[in-house]
Design goal:
The protein has helices spanning 225-231, 235-246, 287-295, 312-328, 334-347, 365-382, 384-397, 405-416, 421-428, and strands spanning 22-34, 39-50, 57-60, 65-71, 74-76, 79-81, 85-88, 99-108, 121-125, 128-132, 152-161, 165-168, 171-178, 181-192, 199-202, 205-209, 216-220, 254-258, 267-269, 272-275, 303-305, 401-403. With 437 residues, it is α+β, with helices and mostly antiparallel strands. The structure holds zinc ion (ZN). Pfam families: Peptidase_M1, Peptidase_M1_N.
Length: 437
């Protein structure tokens, strides 16, 4: 294998990105960032394992230049790089099943990479940084195997000017200031997909709310504090409610970052969600979105998809969680929201198969809404006790791993006690909306 090779390419929805030829156990990233010049210098220590005999290790790395590479402690000369891929060639192929340690020094001026879904990855804010990598933008800030099923642990150490707060995936384990610069160390031992690893930098206040079962760490611009307190006051209740319906919250803590900039949409990261200033109005205007991003911690982040074609498993569940939360809070019941969205989808073009939406349509709103409807009508079909037992079994059996639609259908049939192939086939594999008759 000299190129990426069709057999090992990461995901048909993100061609040329990621690979199945090796897997990563851990990333240890040591980063130094200069806000004023947008200069990032890093050392990535990657502990990997060959899945097949590896004549070359391909890593996703966009625009940043690798300057030195060591493999198992030995400096390698045979490295090549194009715009989005770093290729490292060992002196002899690494046999399948063998562990390896890569150390890559790299740097440059990071920025988003173009994609079918717009610019993704590292992005400069008016005064700080955001990373929004879904589905394949992590290569804009570290060399990685950027496919959703390759989950690894993370340790991120980032040094920036002391005026800034740095928030990364994981628990803050160290914070040290020297000569006007602060080093922040975050550990995320739970298996994390590259797209869910994150760095957020801004002039943020930090507050921790220890009042609920799960501590919540907030980072936000000082002027938004009042509005943020009001808008996120339901979060402890939400965490309890989802834990009751979906199973235990999958991480030790939850994080919320609110940027000073407006953002088109909020986004989920591992054990964290990121909102724009526009999502915090002090009047609960984004409660639906707060529920959606939180639900991703169970659906998408802990139970991840191995391939993007199954994205309804992330988005359908997160959307259905919004409806369950609405009912819990005394708003519209889930059944009413399902009716409304069913009628709306009946008016929309029925030309999308949510079980295989295609790359261009993977974030189409119909994947979200019809995914939620699939779950709602599954619930109607098998009854509440079986349905909620199924959700709990799904999040526990596949916790911190990946799964797919076939596994969900099989588990649903197990809980239902009868075949559901025709039900799922109608909802997931055909563009026409199933009739409710
Ligand atoms: Zn979502």
């Amino acid at each position: 294998m000299t190129g990426r090779g069709v057999a090992f390419s990461g995901d048909p929805y993100t061609p040329g990105i990621g690979t199945w030829s090796y897997r990563v156990h851990s990333y240890d990233l040591e980063l130094d960032y200069r806000i004023e010049t947008n200069r990032l210098d890093g050392v990535a220590r990657i502990s990997g394992e060959a899945v097949v005999d590896l004549p070359a290790i391909l890593l996703d790395l966009s625009k940043l230049k690798a300057t030195k590479v060591r493999l198992d402690g030995r400096r390698l000369q045979r490295i090549t790089q194009n715009t989005h891929t770093l290729t490292v060639r060992p002196d002899a192929p690494i046999p399948a099943g063998t562990r390896f340690e890569l150390e890559i020094e790299y740097g440059g001026r990071p920025g988003p990479r173009r994609s079918a879904w717009g610019p993704i990855g590292w992005e400069e804010l008016a005064d700080g940084v955001l990373t929004a990598s879904q589905p394949s933008g992590s290569s804009t800030w570290f060399p990685c195997n950027d496919r959703p099923g390759d989950k690894a642990s993370y340790r991120i150490r980032l040094t920036a000017d002391q005026d800034y707060t740095v928030v990364c995936s994981g628990t803050l384990t160290e914070q040290r200031t020297r000569s006007g610069r602060t080093t922040w160390v975050y550990d995320q031992p739970r298996p994390t997909a590259a797209y869910l690893a994150t760095v957020q930098i801004g002039q943020y206040l930090r507050r921790t709310d220890d009042s609920g079962a799960v501590p919540v760490d907030y980072a936000f611009p000082a002027e938004l504090e009042g509005r943020l307190r009001a808008d996120f006051s339901p979060l402890p209740h939400m965490l309890d409610f989802f834990a009751r319906e979906f199973g235990p919250y999958p991480f030790d803590r939850y994080g919320v970052v609110v940027t000073a900039d407006e953002l088109e949409i909020p986004l989920e990261a591992q054990a964290m969600a990121i909102f724009g200033a526009n999502h915090v109005d002090g009047a609960g205007g984004s409660e639906r979105l707060i529920a959606h991003e939180l639900a991703h911690q169970w659906f998408g982040n802990s139970v991840g998809v191995a391939a993007w074609k199954d994205i309804w498993l992330n988005e359908g569940f997160a959307c259905y969680a919004e409806w369950l939360w609405s009912e819990e809070r005394g708003g519209s019941p889930a059944a009413q929201l399902a009716q409304e969205h069913y009628l709306r989808l009946r008016q929309a073009p029925q030309d999308l198969v949510i079980g295989e939406p295609g790359a261009a349509s993977m974030f189409d709103d119909r994947v979200y809404k019809r995914g939620a409807l699939t779950l709602h009508f599954l619930r109607a079909e098998i009854g509440d006790p079986a349905f909620f037992a199924l959700l709990q079994a799904w999040t526990s059996e596949h916790a911190h791993s990946t799964s797919d639609t076939a596994a969900f259908v099989a588990l649903a049939e197990e809980h239902a006690g009868h075949p559901l192939a025709a039900f799922f086939d109608a909802w997931l594999n055909h563009p026409a909306l199933p009739s409710l008759a």
